[in-house]
């Protein structure tokens, strides 16, 4: 370890894990502080009724190279799988199942066949959607003017009806932006569609966690950090940040900790509280980001009712269904389905009984075999502030990793990664924060992240900007 080169990482989510591993790998003495008794942040597992359940259904895309590289670093990439070809089963009450599947042609023609055969749009709507997709390709997500416009307004201006938005555009907007298209920033929406669907043909192939999030992220992160020499302190709440002559001090219920550099990798509302005494204006901007909730429903049936490993819903309150039977260790013969509800402001205010009354009939409409099945378990998990609110005006509020306080750097999905609040954004932010921290400490970084563009890691090179990853 390098004497006098101490880094404190506050937050044990993906951003904090990536930052801590980078800093330790470069020779810094690293302490990671996490208020919970586990690592993983917003991606975690819990046990209920003998089942291992994830708090939410976190998927990723083939283009999420930083996240996949981190899992390889943790030794848990074998617990994930990426589709050989993008394929989204789409269910609608009273209609036969449909599939959105990419073809073998180069982008953007790889989606032409899927769109031409999509039964939940009319022929005229399908042609209009193709024109709108071409219009999205011509947009530059780095254009600040796009962040002042909602995706819904742009779609309406380009001839997309409310029916087309609900049946097609929201299938992608809701799970990636945690907002419906009507409320989302055009800049972030253009990024998502260009990066995931309209760029490389295979970029949007969906990756799933075969194991639980605890098995894939939390437990292997503890092992990897220990092997890297990181001092991980769980159950440690950071309550104050103070500047000192030599750097910064973190104070909490378990005393204090001094470090030359601090990586603040907490959710943005908690980060704002710690930043208030040091960077009042920045703290106010973070609070201005707002938040958007996610609700997950966990339903165990006494028999198999769904043949698909996952499916999207159209014309129903059910957004996405995931079969988590095997990962959870469900009893033989039973099937455990997780229903993911993004942008779930309405559902946040509903009781479990009200959610059950609304969603069990909706599931029976989509899955005929559920009508005769017995529900063995129904519960809901809620993330009140799952992500920042990806609305117009967001870009101006998202900070870079570097701050005006010497030694203090920021990490989290809410920083200026260019991505919405995703697994990839979290990891990229951790790399960018570590790059800044090590630069301030005068430590040269090892080449440990081959394949990840330098701009994505917050490392400036001639002619590059952090936004270059978006193109």
How would you portray this structure in words?
With 471 residues, the chain is of the alpha/beta class. The protein folds into three domains: 6-41 and 216-290 and 393-470, 3-Layer(bba) Sandwich (FAD/NAD(P)-binding domain); 45-81 and 207-211 and 291-387, Protoporphyrinogen oxidase, mitochondrial, domain 2 (Polyamine Oxidase, Chain A, domain 2), CATH 3.90.660.20; 100-201. It contains 14 helices and 20 strands. It has helices spanning 14-25, 65-74, 112-116, 123-137, 151-157, 162-177, 186-198, 213-227, 268-275, 280-288, 325-328, 345-348, 352-366, 423-441; strands spanning 6-10, 29-34, 45-48, 51-54, 60-61, 80-82, 87-91, 98-101, 206-209, 231-234, 238-243, 248-252, 255-259, 261-264, 292-301, 310-313, 320-323, 335-342, 375-387, 408-410. Helix 1 (14-25) packs parallel to helix 8 (213-227). The longest helix is centred in the C-terminal third of the chain and has 19 residues, at 423-441. The protein is globular, with a radius of gyration of 22 Å. The protein starts with 5 loop residues before the first strand and ends in a 30-residue tail after the last helix. Residues 458-471 have low confidence and may be disordered.
């Amino acid at each position: 370890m390098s004497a006098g080169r101490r880094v404190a990482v506050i937050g044990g989510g993906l951003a904090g894990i990536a930052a801590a591993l980078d800093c330790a790998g470069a020779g810094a003495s690293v302490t990671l502080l996490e208020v919970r008794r586990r690592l993983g942040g917003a991606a975690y597992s819990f046990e209920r009724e003998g089942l291992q359940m994830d708090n939410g259904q976190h998927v990723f895309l083939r283009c999420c190279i930083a996240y996949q590289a981190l899992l390889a670093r943790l030794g848990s990439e074998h617990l994930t799988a990426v589709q050989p070809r993008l394929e989204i089963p789409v269910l609608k009450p009273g209609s036969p199942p449909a599939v959105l599947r990419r073809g073998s042609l180069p982008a953007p023609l790889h989606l032409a066949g899927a769109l031409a055969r999509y039964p939940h749009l009319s022929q005229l709507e399908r042609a209009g959607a193709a024109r709108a997709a071409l219009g999205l390709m011509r947009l530059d997500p780095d254009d600040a003017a796009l962040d002042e416009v909602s995706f819904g307004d742009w779609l309406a201006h380009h001839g997309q009806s409310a029916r087309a938005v609900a049946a097609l555009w929201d299938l992608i907007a809701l799970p990636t932006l945690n907002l419906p298209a009507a409320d989302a920033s055009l800049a972030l929406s253009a990024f998502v569609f260009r990066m995931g669907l309209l760029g490389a043909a295979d970029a949007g192939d969906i990756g799933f966690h075969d194991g639980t999030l605890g098995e894939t992220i939390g437990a292997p992160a503890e092992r990897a950090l220990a092997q890297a020499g990181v001092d991980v302190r769980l159950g440690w709440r950071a309550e104050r940040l103070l500047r000192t002559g030599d750097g910064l001090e973190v104070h909490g219920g378990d005393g204090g900790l001094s470090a030359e550099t601090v990586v603040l990798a907490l959710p943005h509302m908690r980060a704002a509280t710690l930043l208030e005494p040091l960077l009042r204006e920045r703290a106010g901007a973070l609070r201005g980001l707002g938040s958007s909730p996610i609700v997950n429903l966990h339903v165990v049936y006494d028999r198999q009712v769904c043949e698909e490993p996952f499916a999207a819903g159209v014309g129903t309150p059910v957004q996405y269904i995931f079969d988590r039977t095997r990962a959870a260790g469900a009893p033989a013969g039973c099937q455990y389905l997780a229903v993911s509800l993004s942008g779930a402001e309405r559902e946040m205010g509903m009781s479990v009984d009200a959610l059950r009354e609304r969603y069990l009939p909706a599931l029976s409409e989509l899955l005929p075999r559920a009508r005769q099945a017995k529900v063995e378990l129904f519960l809901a998990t809620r993330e009140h502030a799952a992500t920042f609110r990806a609305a117009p005006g967001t870009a101006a509020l998202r900070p870079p990793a570097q701050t005006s306080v010497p030694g203090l750097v920021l990490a989290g999905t809410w920083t200026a990664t260019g991505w919405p609040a995703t697994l990839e954004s979290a990891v990229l932010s951790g790399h960018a924060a570590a790059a800044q921290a090590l630069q301030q400490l005068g430590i040269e970084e090892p080449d440990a992240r081959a394949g990840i563009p330098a701009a994505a890691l917050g490392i400036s090179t001639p002619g590059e900007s952090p936004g270059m990853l978006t193109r």
